[in-house]
UniProtKB/TrEMBL annotation:
Its EC number is 3.1.3.25. It comes from the Eukaryota. This is inositol-phosphate phosphatase. One of its GO terms (biological process) is phosphatidylinositol phosphate biosynthetic process. Belongs to the inositol monophosphatase superfamily. It comes from Amphiprion percula (Orange clownfish). CDD domains: IPPase.
Length: 344
């Protein structure tokens, strides 16, 4: 008897193939699902790691800033003018620092949005995080916090106080990194390249900075920008009286440090002030890191009307700012005269 065979019609072949695919899908669906879950887990960003990278980036940028200044290779040019008519300068120090800071952050956390004061298409894939978390961060922050990268915005200022940098007033110069979580600053780093001091804070977790032991309830010293000190002096004295000392200084990062307790090794390197006030437009890469440092000490940085500043994607803060720590911030705001930066 001839052996019996099974002959499938084209429809049968199709059904058999579909059944086979179904079996394979069911066999591997669990594996694929678990791998996808693992991938999603890997996409989380550890904020303690991001703090460590931010410190490393600020220091790396600071080395470029210092090197260019010491070699007198600034090659300064004007990017344009501010709304108030002051020249916005760009130097080789700004660009070199930007390239180091931006590429290090993007290479380490490619899915995180990073906004910088400078714009440059130079890509350097060789810049990678050392994977080292500084000892003082490990001492103060026991564990990290995982968040989704889409919730984060990073602001970097590769060289704060460029005008003063060109004038060799280097004490005002800083490099800064800030991390905002859903628009609120949670990590701030302010590095001083010419003293090699780095201030950092992780809001709610720890910081290497402290508020001073005492502040004046009515500010006796208010720090303001050198670029428009005449207008702001009148504003300050209308609020707090003619005896108020107004300190003119460069750099938003420097001004925030003036509100905090500097370590003994840095004593005398920064002016001491009770309040920081700015009455014109200002970019968020200038102020975000300082806001995080102040918030970590229970301080505040708001608009002149006392409103919180949203550190999401829009770069320009149009409401001016008032920054304090160790005082009743709401009481300070109430003393400020009505002023709308958009109308001046």
């Amino acid at each position: 008897m001839a052996p019996m065979g099974i002959r499938l019609s084209p429809l049968g072949v199709a059904v058999f193939c579909l059944l086979g695919v179904g079996v394979i899908y069911h066999l591997y669906a669990g594996v694929l699902s678990s791998r996808l879950a693992a991938f999603r887990q890997r996409r989380k960003v550890d904020l303690r790691d991001l703090l460590a990278v931010s410190v490393e980036a600020a220091i790396l940028g600071g080395k470029e800033v210092k090197k260019v200044r010491e070699e007198n290779g600034l090659n300064e040019k004007t990017k344009g003018k501010t709304r108030e008519g002051a020249s916005e300068l760009l130097t080789t120090g700004d660009l070199q620092s930007h390239r180091k800071m931006f590429n290090l952050l993007k290479n380490t956390f490619p899915e995180v949005k990073v906004y910088s004061e400078e714009h440059d298409n130079t890509v350097d894939q060789t810049l990678t995080w050392s994977r080292v978390i500084p000892g003082e961060i490990l001492e103060r922050i026991n564990e990290g916090k995982d968040v989704s990268p889409e919730r984060l915005t990073v602001w970097i200022d590769p060289l704060d106080a460029t005008q003063e940098y060109t004038e060799n007033l280097v004490k005002y110069v800083t490099t800064m990194v800030c991390v905002a979580l859903e628009g609120k600053p949670v990590i701030g780093v302010i590095h001083q390249p010419f003293t090699d001091f780095t201030a950092w804070a992780f809001v709610g977790q720890g910081s290497n900075m402290h508020s001073r032991s005492s502040y004046s309830a009515t500010p006796s010293k208010v720090i303001v920008s050198r670029s428009h000190s005449g207008q702001v002096k009148n504003y300050i004295r209308e609020a707090f009286g003619n005896s108020t000392t107004v300190i003119e200084a460069g750099g938003a990062g420097y001004k925030v440090l003036s509100l905090l307790e500097m370590p003994p090794s840095e004593a005398g390197s920064v002016d001491q002030a009770d309040l920081y006030v700015h009455i014109t437009f200002i970019k968020k890469w200038d102020i975000c890191a300082g806001a995080a440092l102040l918030n970590a000490q229970g301080g505040h940085m708001t608009t002149l009307k006392g409103e919180d500043i949203d550190y999401s994607e829009t770069a320009l803060n149009k409401g001016g700012l008032v920054a304090s720590v160790g005082v009743d911030h709401k009481a300070i705001v109430k003393k400020l005269p009505d002023y709308d930066p958009e109308k001046h």
